[in-house]
Amino acid sequence: MSAVSAISGSQVSVPVQASRFEAFGPHGIFDGQEASRGQRAVPAVAPRQAPLRLTRRGRFVFFGLPLILLAALVLSLAGFLNAPAKAADSTAELSLTPTVTVTVQPGESLWAIAGAVAPERDPRDVVADIVQLNNLDAARVIPGQQLYVPSR
Which secondary structure element, helix H or strand E, spans residue 102, and what is its range? Predict the structure, then answer.
């Protein structure tokens, strides 16, 4: 490598470091001359990236959201595992509720029927049983209606 001296106009040999000229381009200034003398170019070092920093919202999305979804999944599985058991495994194990058929008279209510059929039981429980046995939407009955009433 050589440079021209401004004073004498003659050529003077000056050593040049390749690292000083890396900013001028990807190939350097004197690539052709360095290759002829057996010197190899120094590759540019890539700048190191700063470590990743999460904001409060980023931490919530990265950690909190998956934890909330996992908790919801665990709670739903716990609900399935704690479901009520079957009443019976076979029809032979089922017990039938003894019932009697009652015809509703004019002016009579479920409360009155419950008190007449099972005076020893709480009328609220008997009314609930009558509604369940007859698939009634409400506790209203009409005169002449046939109802199944538990006899015990």
Answer: strand 99-103
